[in-house]
Write a structure and sequence with these properties.
Blueprint (H helix, E strand, L loop, with lengths): L4 E12 L2 E13 L4 E5 L6 H8 L7 E6 L2 E2 L7 E4 L11 H5 L1 H5 L5 H13 L15 H14 L4 E5 L7 H18 L2 E5 L3 H7 L2 E5 L6 E6 L9 H5 L2 H20 L5
The structure holds adenosine-5'-diphosphate.
């Protein structure tokens, strides 16, 4: 089966007046349909650059990016984004915020509106349809942001530190909630995070990047043998600590081997 996303030997450098900064070096991986993959790596290693390339904002210096088997040359409607901040507009109701993406992309059909209402009901936000974003909790706002993204039926979800603006307790419940919704909808997701616990609790696979220029240090498959495999339940399972330590060691190994490098 054709992977949803395929990266083949991707290289990328920034060019500024001060010179060239190599951000990504020889990155190759693919995402199968329905797979949830996390990307972790030291701060400044190139994680956001990777997302910008996948989103079609930047073009690779060399290498190939395929979405559904076709070369990805520009921003694709098949890709949905969830960011650190929910970007809900206070001057719009929750319902109208959810419709915003459809409106901007000229897809505001009666069917889409019906789907929006159905999703608000399905995800427990029906009673807030006419509320302003400020009337909702942080978790509900992230739910609304997810509905806005899912409404356009993306084939791939890019999640860029989507929970890092939330306090620790809220983050646990919201990532559990959002993670379960993404699983239920069978979406393929790529999560960029600096939080190893979040990566282990949510994903099927964790891609560990090295320091800049980012290369793939390791890809760690994550499987839990628990009955009710949810992000919160994973955190209490015995395997959790093992995976966490493995990833921690991999990241710190990178720190140590690069020590003293200019
Ligand atoms: P991360 O998301 O992992 O923190 P980024 O992808 O934002 O890292 O950046 C990777 C590296 O690329 C940074 O260390 C920085 O030096 C460089 N970089 C990022 N954006 C620019 C830019 N606009 N111009 C020049 N260099 C940049």
């Amino acid at each position: 089966m054709t992977p949803i996303l395929e990266l083949k030997n991707i290289h990328y450098s920034y060019h500024t007046l001060d010179g060239e900064t190599k951000a990504l070096s020889d990155i190759s991986f693919s995402l199968a349909k329905g797979e949830f993959t996390a990307v972790v790596g030291p701060s400044g290693c190139g994680k956001s650059t990777l997302l910008s390339l996948i989103d079609g904002l930047f073009r690779p210096e060399s290498g190939e990016l395929l979405l559904g088997g076709e070369s990805l040359t520009e921003n694709s409607e098949k890709i949905g984004y969830m960011l650190q901040h929910d970007h809900l507009f206070e001057w719009r109701t929750i319902y109208r915020n959810i419709l915003l993406g459809a409106e901007i992309t000229g897809r505001l059909t009666p069917e889409i509106k019906q789907r929006a209402s159905r999703m608000l009901e399905q995800y427990g936000l029906k009673q807030f349809a006419r509320s302003k974003p400020s009337e909702l909790s942080g978790g509900m706002r992230q739910r609304a942001a997810l509905i806005r993204t899912l409404l356009l039926e993306p084939e791939l979800l890019l999640l860029d530190e989507p929970f890092s603006a939330l306090d620790y307790q809220t983050r646990l419940t919201v990532s559990d909630d959002i993670g379960q919704i993404i699983r239920r909808t069978g979406k393929t997701a790529l999560l960029v995070t600096h939080d190893l616990s979040e990566a282990v609790s949510l994903s099927d696979r964790v891609i560990v990047l090295t320091k800049r220029p980012a290369t793939i240090a390791r890809i760690v498959p994550i499987t839990f043998s628990i009955e009710n495999d949810t992000p919160l339940n994973r955190r209490n399972a015995p395997e959790f600590k093992t995976y966490f330590n493995e990833l921690w060691k991999e990241l710190n190994h990178d720190e140590q081997t690069n020590e003293g490098t200019p």
